[in-house]
Design a protein that fits this description.
Layout (H helix, E strand, L loop, with lengths): L4 E2 L4 E4 L5 H10 L6 H10 L1 E7 L2 E11 L3 E9 L8 H13 L3 E6 L4 H6 L3 E12 L12 E5 L5 H12 L7 H5 L3 E7 L2 E11 L2 E10 L5 H13 L4 E7 L5 H6 L3 E11 L16 E5 L7
Parallel strand pairs: 5-6, 11-12
Antiparallel strand pairs: 1-2, 2-3, 3-4, 4-5, 6-13, 7-12, 7-13, 8-9, 9-10, 10-11, 11-14
């Protein structure tokens, strides 16, 4: 597909750094809290496209490639006054064309789900957006040979490996730029890195994610990695994007971090005739919280 692509009413082209202010205004107009910094991170780590009409930016989409066969897609936005004109469909098609023959994952709102299904995506899970002003969390006791410690410069390769194993996606191009924006804490057992969590500004407050840890009784590892940030930021607005199924909902809700929205996880296989399990995540590790919905 050529760049740019002209439609009857609008033009699609690649997102450029100069588009960030307009993209942020568009996301704010529909109630998304993303700051320019979030948009810059998305543009730096992914490939974006915008739709323009009469010189105004009226739509966006961003996609991310992980290795040669996997990708995620998100940040699909259309100005409310220009919906129903085929802009979202055109941007979606442009992103799919860019991604080629890859297994693609995305998170869809109820409004976007019909379009995703029409393009061959199927539901395969869900993600809860949890948010609140954290109360003082009780201490989470770790075993005597385990501790939390600050991340160091030499941890990056291990963090990438852990994040890739937990998500099933190669995080080598995404995690290092994220570390430039975030504070981090590591879970350590006698010098072995078992898990980690990152904390950064996001929207009107802060976000905890990713949170990567293995199975442990009562989720103690994940709780300790989350509790660390809550204890340091009492009263701050905290967001956690948590996949279904890891059992922290009741604990988080008891701390004042409650579910505010649920989105459906959907994916499309590169070859619809294949019958294989596409998740290659390490079953011994979990993402208790993701980086952000579009990168999950």
């Amino acid at each position: 597909m050529s760049d740019p692509t002209t439609h009857a009413l609008f033009t699609c082209r690649r997102l450029s750094p100069d588009d960030i202010p307009a993209a942020q205004r568009l996301s704010a107009a529909i109630g998304w809290p993303h700051r320019r910094e979030e948009w810059r991170f998305s543009a730096r780590t992914g490939i974006g496209f915008v739709a323009e009409m009469a010189g105004a930016l009226v739509g966006t989409v961003v996609c991310w490639m992980f290795g040669s066969d996997r990708a995620t897609l998100g940040m699909l936005l259309v100005a409310p006054e220009h919906r129903g004109k085929g802009i979202g469909e055109a941007l979606f098609a442009r992103a799919l064309d860019e991604l080629g023959e890859r297994d693609i994952t995305l998170y869809a709102s109820d409004a976007a789900r019909p379009l995703c299904e029409a393009l061959g995506f199927e539901a395969c899970g869900a993600l809860d957006q949890m948010q609140g002003a954290a109360f003082r969390p009780p201490l989470v006791a770790l075993p005597t040979n385990e501790r939390l410690r600050p991340l160091g410069a030499r941890d990056t390769a291990q963090l990438v490996a852990l994040a890739s194993r937990a998500s099933g996606l190669d995080r080598s191009l995404v995690l290092p730029p994220l570390l430039d924006l975030a504070d981090g804490i590591a879970l350590d057992r006698d010098g072995e890195l078992l898990g980690f969590s990152l904390f950064r500004r996001f929207g009107r407050g802060f976000i905890i994610g990713p949170v990567v840890a293995g199975d442990a009784p009562d989720g103690v590892h994940a709780k300790a990695l989350i509790r660390h940030w809550l204890a340091l930021n009492e009263g701050a607005l905290i967001r956690i994007d948590a996949p279904h199924g890891h059992g922290l909902d009741a604990w988080l809700s008891g701390l004042g971090i409650v579910r505010t929205e649920t989105v459906v996880k959907m994916r499309r296989l590169a070859d619809a005739t294949r019958r294989r399990e596409t998740d290659i995540a390490d079953g011994a590790l979990h993402q208790y919280a993701v980086i952000m919905q579009s990168l999950a």
